[in-house]
Known about the structure:
Order of helices and strands: HEHHEHEHHEHEHEHHEEHHHEEHEEEH
Distance between the termini: 23 Å
Strand content: 5-15%
Radius of gyration: 22 Å
Helix content: 40-55%
Amino acid sequence: MTRTAGQDDEEKSARQRLRERRTAARRQAGRVLSRDGALGTLRDRLTLLHEAAPQVYDLDEQADLYGDGVVAALEERVAALLGTEAAAFFPTGTMAQQVALRCWAGRTGNPTVALHAMSHPEVWERGAFTAVSGLRPVQVTREPRLPTAEEVRGFEEPFGSLMLELPLRDAGHVLPTWEELTEVVEAARERDAVVHFDGARLWETTHHFGRSLSEIAELADSVYVSFYKSLAGFGGAALAGPKTLVDEARTWRHRYGGAVFQQFPTALSALIGLERELPRLPDYVAHAHVVAAALREGFAAAGPAWARVHPEVPHTHEFQVWLPYDADVLAEAATRQAERTGTMLFVGAWAQGGPGLSRTEVTVGAAGLEWTADDVRRATADFVDLVREVVSG
């Protein structure tokens, strides 16, 4: 039967109402596994700066102009953490990575960038590598894991750079083992390619690898890190690597429009994140193991017959949950749980992964450390009951 324009409009309106209810429920929920500061009010964000900024930087210093002052201090802090010669602040990670790989293309003489089909530039950046920077991305694999050394060695054409997203977010925030990662890097070196880490969430990986940030970054020729992913900053990113590369990247940053007049709020929020959140990330990862196990147990006890937590043991403090229902059904159940009980087990959006199959991302943050395994199992049982209620109408 052909749908009418009126039916389509009504469906859009219903989804919009659900989004608004879900947003309100998330803000009002007393218990969540993580609380995203970016979704707070302007007052909340300004309060953070007012209270925490004096603890991380001398506020009697002159405000920054075009990257000096507090921005330069942030760059030095990142370079020290990652063990690189230098680092440059960028307003966005998209710009930072384009500049990094453009610089490497000029040095290697090869604009081809080997990457994963599910990597951020391929999925979320509208072909920016090619459209803006003249790069040519080629996909090493589509498997829901990082590329293997064998795939890198056996790839059928030359490439100048290999980009590895650590963790690979869209595959479930997955990581290779340390041995697998070192083998992949060695395979790229054998092909005379440079290695760039898309480390937007690199901060989260130390627990899984059992290595420091500097040991992880040392494997790559350059590394990008984000300040709002994992660290709860206002935005911004950094490109770290050899001083000659970073100096060249600053020139391209200017050409790309990234030489912003003043960036002190973002830089201060990044320093706050490095001070407050970075030391706690291993605790979040460890507790994510507890939460994931309790979710599996809760779904096994309460149904549905098919449910998946992926990875079963999370590699970071973020992971996926897959359930055999449409996304709208699960979003409605999550919203009702928050509205009725003050607990919101799943605060993230649900994405349709196929007919009658949806997934969401779970992040375990400071708020999640208060949850016991029993808390998670009880909340899972309540959520399943609400899913059945929504389905039954």
